[in-house]
Amino acid sequence: MKVTKNGFKNRQLHIEDYLQMVSAEQKEYAEVFDYQRITENNDIIADFWTNNLMELILRKDNLNKAYQRVKSNKGASGIDGMQVDELLPYLKEKQSDLTQKIIQGKYKPNPVRRVEIPKEEKGKVRLLGIPTVVDRVIQQAIAQELTPIFEEQFSENSFGFRPKRSQHKALKASQKNANEGYVYTVSLDLEKFFDVVNHSKLIEILSRTIKDGRVISLIHKYLNAGVLDKGIFAKTEDGFPQGGPLSPLLSNVILNELDQELERRGHRFVRFADDLLIFCKSRKSANRAMNNIIPFIEGKLRLRVNRTKTEVAHISKIKYLGYGFYRYKGECRFRAHPKSLEKMKAKVRILTHRNNGWSNRYREKRIKDFVTGWINYFHLADMKSIMKATDQWIRHRIRAVYWKQWKRVRTRYRMLRALKLEEWQVTMLANSRKGIWRTAGMLNVALTNKIIARLGYISMTDYYLKVCEN
Q1: 3-class DSSP state for residue 443?
Q2: 434 to each of 401, 415, 439, how far by Cα in Å?
Q3: Strand 232-234 to strand 323-328: parallel, antiparallel, or no bridges (unpaired)?
Q4: Who contacts 413 (Cβ-Cβ below 8 Å, separation ≥6)?
Q5: How many whole angstroms from its chain centre is CA 246?
Q6: CA–CA gap between residue 59 and residue 15 (Å, rounded)
């Protein structure tokens, strides 16, 4: 057995709990546990850690890191009403009792609070489950220790909820497959994935790696904690709540079985969470791949495939992670999908509504936050001309907001004169009897593009040209 000096030092520290916490509020500690430094090609000590995971999860530094993560994420309260700001005093008082209950197997997680989020499809909702802030800390602590263990097993073609991976990397992997001739895709839709995951199957997969039965038991308790919906308790015999810190890891654990099967069959694919694309060179082979993989998903993994949304299509016809694809000079390139553009415009309509009662400063901030976030996500897409047209439309709506605020004729006279217009232009605009939208179109002589920019409204075109990658 060969053990590195640094690895032995870390091992001693964690067994005897000699790690010293710098501060209850700090993220960093004097020593950090590192799986890679413990051994070199030694399964015995690796088994020691998988067999004693509970002690690792309940280390003070791991729990403190979990607290910091929950605190930074903020989020709504669970069924007990406790806010994130109330968490630290509670943990200081109850941490010892809490960890003792978990080690003894007596801890009982609280049910999650059911929240409904509208989907793109009209009338449909996505069900989220909000755990209590205490349960979020415990789940986060579990996820922090399990992630490096399972990361070694996960596929290179999986990009969702993993360190140093993102939607953009999934899109670039898709682009690479298309450029290499794999232009027909199987777009697999897993129906209500988070709600139908079979608990027995998930526990079986987890147990292959996690040998500490206390951790398996605690995860099982979280799966069976139930939900509270409008004051009514309901059991959760299948699925797990979409919204807890542990849920992304558990989704990757079970879908990794699908990844391994696809790799065994020699398929090219890209998966982000439950959004899966299989790439083929012909429509015929894509249809064959779809028909062959569905029995595995439904039979072995006990998941459901939505056959109405699962389809074979050329890559130019699909929507993936909000993006569309097109070919230019023989190369696959990105565009913002028309549905994504419609969603963006719907949001802008809300932000520039004339009757929302917002102050101009607040509206400027909301628009800036939305525009920068949206373009940062879609910076891979070719959309310079779309951004120019959208900017014109947004400025028109902003002028309409200001015109409505200048309700009285004397206010219009004062504001238009302050904008240095000729007197005949001031008189014509101030006494205009046309509607707000039409007058806003004429107001561009006063509220010019430069003035709107000086007022704090961001230009989508200018920001896009700063961050785009094409």
Answers
A1: helix
A2: 15, 18, 6
A3: unpaired
A4: 426, 430
A5: 14
A6: 10
